[in-house]
Amino acid sequence: MTSTLAARTPGATRAAPGEYVFDLATVNHIMGGPDYSTANGACVEGDRLIVGLMRMPAGTGAEPHSHPNEQWIYVLQGTFRAKIGGKQVDVKAGSVAYIPANVVHEGKATPDGDVVFFTCKDASYGLQGIKA
User: Fold this and answer.
1) Angle, CA 116 vertex, CA 101 and CA 31 arms, to 5°
2) For site-directed labelling of 64, which of 77, 81, 98, 103 has its Cα 20 to 30 A away?
Protein backbone atom coordinates (compact mmCIF):
# COMPACT_ATOMS: atom_id res chain seq x y z
CA MET A 1 0.00 0.00 0.00
CA THR A 2 1.38 3.42 -0.91
CA SER A 3 0.55 6.57 1.02
CA THR A 4 -0.93 9.60 -0.68
CA LEU A 5 0.96 11.81 1.78
CA ALA A 6 4.61 12.63 1.27
CA ALA A 7 7.10 11.80 4.01
CA ARG A 8 8.57 14.77 5.88
CA THR A 9 11.98 13.10 5.75
CA PRO A 10 13.46 12.49 2.27
CA GLY A 11 13.50 8.75 1.56
CA ALA A 12 11.49 7.75 4.64
CA THR A 13 8.53 5.38 4.45
CA ARG A 14 5.20 7.10 5.11
CA ALA A 15 2.44 4.98 6.68
CA ALA A 16 -0.58 4.71 4.42
CA PRO A 17 -4.18 4.35 5.56
CA GLY A 18 -4.69 0.73 6.66
CA GLU A 19 -0.95 -0.01 6.77
CA TYR A 20 -0.07 -1.15 10.30
CA VAL A 21 3.08 -3.29 10.21
CA PHE A 22 6.52 -2.39 8.87
CA ASP A 23 9.50 -4.71 8.54
CA LEU A 24 12.37 -2.38 9.45
CA ALA A 25 14.82 -4.70 7.69
CA THR A 26 13.13 -4.06 4.35
CA VAL A 27 11.80 -0.47 4.42
CA ASN A 28 13.93 2.26 2.84
CA HIS A 29 17.17 2.91 4.70
CA ILE A 30 18.22 6.54 4.90
CA MET A 31 20.96 8.65 6.45
CA GLY A 32 19.92 10.04 9.83
CA GLY A 33 21.61 13.35 9.03
CA PRO A 34 23.23 13.34 5.58
CA ASP A 35 25.46 16.37 6.17
CA TYR A 36 26.37 15.78 9.84
CA SER A 37 25.90 12.12 10.89
CA THR A 38 26.92 8.56 10.02
CA ALA A 39 23.71 7.12 11.51
CA ASN A 40 21.72 5.18 8.93
CA GLY A 41 18.75 2.85 8.90
CA ALA A 42 15.02 2.45 8.55
CA CYS A 43 12.62 5.34 9.10
CA VAL A 44 8.81 5.20 9.18
CA GLU A 45 6.55 8.22 9.57
CA GLY A 46 2.96 8.43 10.76
CA ASP A 47 0.73 11.44 11.36
CA ARG A 48 2.18 12.33 14.78
CA LEU A 49 5.32 10.23 15.27
CA ILE A 50 8.46 9.29 13.39
CA VAL A 51 10.39 6.15 14.33
CA GLY A 52 13.74 4.87 13.16
CA LEU A 53 16.05 1.94 13.73
CA MET A 54 19.55 3.28 13.16
CA ARG A 55 23.13 2.02 13.19
CA MET A 56 26.17 4.20 13.82
CA PRO A 57 29.49 2.48 13.00
CA ALA A 58 32.08 2.25 15.80
CA GLY A 59 34.08 5.43 16.30
CA THR A 60 31.81 7.53 14.07
CA GLY A 61 28.91 9.79 14.90
CA ALA A 62 26.99 13.00 14.59
CA GLU A 63 28.37 16.53 14.64
CA PRO A 64 26.56 19.22 16.66
CA HIS A 65 23.01 19.74 15.39
CA SER A 66 19.48 20.45 16.57
CA HIS A 67 15.91 20.02 15.39
CA PRO A 68 12.63 21.68 16.28
CA ASN A 69 11.11 18.39 17.45
CA GLU A 70 11.99 16.46 20.59
CA GLN A 71 13.72 13.09 20.31
CA TRP A 72 14.11 9.88 22.29
CA ILE A 73 17.01 7.49 21.62
CA TYR A 74 16.82 3.95 23.04
CA VAL A 75 20.18 2.18 22.71
CA LEU A 76 19.87 -1.50 21.83
CA GLN A 77 23.58 -2.26 21.32
CA GLY A 78 26.84 -0.49 22.11
CA THR A 79 27.53 2.80 23.88
CA PHE A 80 26.53 6.20 22.52
CA ARG A 81 28.79 8.92 23.96
CA ALA A 82 26.84 12.16 23.60
CA LYS A 83 26.79 15.80 24.55
CA ILE A 84 23.25 17.09 25.03
CA GLY A 85 22.80 20.75 25.89
CA GLY A 86 26.48 20.91 26.87
CA LYS A 87 26.28 17.90 29.23
CA GLN A 88 28.43 14.82 28.46
CA VAL A 89 26.56 11.49 28.84
CA ASP A 90 27.18 7.83 28.02
CA VAL A 91 24.03 6.07 26.86
CA LYS A 92 24.51 2.30 27.13
CA ALA A 93 22.40 -0.58 25.83
CA GLY A 94 19.09 -0.63 27.69
CA SER A 95 19.12 3.12 28.38
CA VAL A 96 17.11 5.89 26.77
CA ALA A 97 18.24 9.47 26.14
CA TYR A 98 15.88 12.44 25.87
CA ILE A 99 16.76 15.38 23.62
CA PRO A 100 14.42 18.37 24.00
CA ALA A 101 13.39 20.38 20.94
CA ASN A 102 15.97 22.91 19.70
CA VAL A 103 18.75 21.67 22.02
CA VAL A 104 22.14 21.33 20.33
CA HIS A 105 23.52 17.81 20.69
CA GLU A 106 26.18 15.52 19.22
CA GLY A 107 27.42 12.02 19.81
CA LYS A 108 29.49 9.08 18.67
CA ALA A 109 29.58 5.34 18.92
CA THR A 110 32.50 4.41 21.14
CA PRO A 111 35.45 2.82 19.27
CA ASP A 112 34.72 -0.63 20.75
CA GLY A 113 31.57 -1.26 18.67
CA ASP A 114 28.69 -0.06 16.56
CA VAL A 115 25.71 1.57 18.23
CA VAL A 116 22.25 0.36 17.25
CA PHE A 117 19.39 2.52 18.48
CA PHE A 118 15.66 2.97 18.11
CA THR A 119 14.60 6.59 17.92
CA CYS A 120 11.27 8.40 18.13
CA LYS A 121 10.46 12.00 17.28
CA ASP A 122 7.26 13.95 17.14
CA ALA A 123 6.23 14.59 13.54
CA SER A 124 6.22 18.38 13.74
CA TYR A 125 9.46 18.17 11.74
CA GLY A 126 11.32 15.39 9.89
CA LEU A 127 13.88 12.93 11.26
CA GLN A 128 16.91 14.87 10.03
CA GLY A 129 18.11 17.91 11.93
CA ILE A 130 20.01 21.10 11.17
CA LYS A 131 23.79 21.17 11.48
CA ALA A 132 24.89 23.68 14.13
Assistant:
1) 65
2) 77
Of 101, 90, 93, nearest in space to 118 by CA = 93
pLDDT in tens, 76-112: 999 999 999 999 999 999 999 999 999 999 999 999 9
CATH code of the domain containing 62? 2.60.120.10
> Does residue 127 lie in a domain region?
yes
Measured between alpha carbons, how far is 22 from 92 in angstroms, rounded to an integer? 26
> CB of 106 within 8 A of CB of 83?
yes
32 conformational bin, left if phi > 0, alpha if psi -120 to 50, beta if neither: alpha
In a domain, 7, yes or no: no
Query: What is the spatial distance between Cα 126 and Cα 129, in angstroms, rounded to a whole number?
Result: 8
